[in-house]
Amino acid sequence: MKDNRVSKVLKKMKENNIPQMIVSDPLSIFYLTGFLLNPGERLYALCLKENGDHKLFVNALFPIEEDLGVEKVIFSDTDDSVAVVAKYMEKGQTIGVDKNWPARFVLALMDLCPDSKFVNSSFIVDTSRMYKDDEEKQLMRNVSIMNDKACEEIIGRITGDKTEKQIADELINLYKEMGAEGLSFDPIIGMAANGANPHGEPGDRYAQPGDAIIVDIGCKKDMYCSDMTRTVFWKEVSEKGKEVYDIVVEANRRGIEASKPGARFCDIDAACRDYITEKGYGEYFTHRTGHHIGLEDHDYGDVSSVNTDVAEPGMIFSIEPGIYLPGDFGVRIEDLVLITEDGCEVLNSYTKDLQVIGND
């Protein structure tokens, strides 16, 4: 068990009057134990208790040889797995459960523990994961450096005879060559009007002169995710393209400047959004400014106009303003920032200068 992380979680359980909690998200279990298992449809859960009598429930199909610092409770496919869990619950006491634990498990446990109150306790581990320790910070730096290199390489490989989909497939192969463990998310390569869809899927379009090309990419390394976006132009760029690009880059800069301890996330969002609105494109910035990131590309928490929580040291999130002109083109620039004691550290270093490619 990761004792420091478990201690933080137990403290939050006590503060929220949750004496026992079932953690079922494999990534959250990894966060707390250092061990990853993907159980498919089978029950897999870590039960944490204020009194320290923790249990890891795992099917015999998945032998765990490692000493994880927690007692393992083994069951088979022919056992009633929920009944096994219920045996160890303190009846009549509140039971916290993960937000994504399947209904077939939680409803069955509710039937077996009718005198217990059940609450969604995911926020306890989710909010703990928001604060990266020194090990996590370095892993996030490392994977972001890898992503910077991949971004530079794939932009250099864009040619007029490759479709969006072919470029995305080439990026996936590039990540493998670089030693990445997988994707943070499916890459977004969006040319011209397809780039005006913030989450557009790569298709069969070839770059045409003047096209803006959104490159939104991320990979995983040592379990942690990267995420960045750059926008380049093919062969030439119009005055309108330059104008929109310059606005988005400045909005990104302002968002980064606003990212510091004590700043409300809604104010960081406003630093980007208000500038874009001031320049006449407010209606075309159609999404929140950012999201937290770590073991998942979209970890718990966001940078949005309605989030009044404040940034604190150890948090890592994206700053990704964009302008999307339907039927025409889109521009998005995204960096990850790590909140420090007196400001923020930007984890991406690949240039944000306007690039017109394809003229070599």
TrEMBL record:
Residues in Peptidase M24 domain copies: 139-341
Annotated CDD domains: APP-like (cd01092)
InterPro entries: Creatin/AminoP/Spt16_N, Creatinase/aminopeptidase-like, Creatinase_N, Pept_M24, Peptidase_M24B
Pfam families in UniProt: Creatinase_N, Peptidase_M24
Creatinase N-terminal domain sequence ranges: 5-130
UniProt name for this protein: Proline dipeptidase
